[in-house]
Amino acid sequence: MFWFNLLVAATLTGACSAVMAVVLLAGVGLPERDLIRLRARLLRGWAVIVTRGMGFRVRVRGPRPEPGDRPIYLVANHQTYLDIVLLASIWPVTFVSRHDAARWPVLGPLIRMVGTVFVDRTSAMATARVVGAVVRALEAGAHLAAFPEGTTGGGDRVMPFKTALFEAPVRAGAWIQPVTVRYTALAGRPLDRTNRDRVCWHGHVPFLPHVLGLLKSRGLEAEVVFGRGFPAPDYRKTAARMARDEIEANFRPVGD
Which one of 12, 144, 200, 251 has the fewest CB atoms closer than 10 angstroms to its CB? Predict the structure, then answer.
């Protein structure tokens, strides 16, 4: 099963990435808004193919956002690199991701290709540049997805949010859409404290061994819950608190 899963994952990722590269090259010269939408749709197509090919089951709950003419700033809790794949499979978004994600095997080159905005929190100046880039992307029509915890957790809680990037949806007048990701089962067995780390990637666990370990099993099950969205308020800390409260209200610790 492991080698079959590895072959499927490698084939799907390689083939889809090649197609995406060709289409994006053909799209060079498109207006920025159209290029953003093309990238998001390509990423969604790739994610749908991968989730189905790997036997992932994703249940979506809650109403999808209807913000009118506002750009969407989707924020979610973060437990694993799979969050990117699951969210991309259900909504055409451009991601805001931590800067080291650009170096991840397999996912790194892909998310660079589709215009991901990478966050460098090493200095206030670097963060200010990222906020400006996120504002420009929102104003250009991108629907962005971010993980404001700033890192991945162990599935036991929603960690405190880093608030700096919430300045971007405030400036852009965006619609903030909280989303809660919950992993519920793997290989037919409910996730609990004994097996949750096969899905949750956190701490100092190396990326590649974790991926290879996950590929030994099929049948990952997850829920994605759309909470109550809201227009960005006037202050970033207020926006962060409102979003976290909504995500936490729909969160269940793995194993509870």
Answer: 12
Element (H, E) at 69: none
Long-range contacts of 60-64 (CB under 8 A, 24+ apart): 60/90, 60/223, 60/224, 60/225, 60/226, 61/223, 61/224, 61/225, 61/226, 62/225, 62/226, 62/227, 62/250, 63/226, 64/91, 64/226
Residue found under tokens 């880039």? 133
Instruction: Give per-residue burial for 13-25: e unless 16+ CB within 10 Å, then b.
Output: beebbeebeeebe
Tokens (6 digits) for 21:
């590269």
Provide the domain count of the chain: 1
Q: Indicate the angle between helix axes 2-26 and 32-53, nearest 10 degrees.
A: 160
Residue 108 lies in a domain: yes
How far apart CA 24 and CA 30 sit, in angstroms, is 10
CATH of the domain at 191: 3.40.1130
Confidence (pLDDT) at 194: 87
CB 81 within 8 A of CB 199: no
User: 234 to each of 23, 174, 238, 244, how far by Cα in Å?
Assistant: 39, 11, 8, 17
Angle made by CA atoms 204, 207, 210, in degrees to the nearest 5? 95
119-148 tens-digit pLDDT: 776 767 777 888 898 998 899 888 999 999
> What is this structure's pTM?
0.84
Helix (H, G, I), strand (E, B) or coil at 117: strand
256 is a domain residue: no
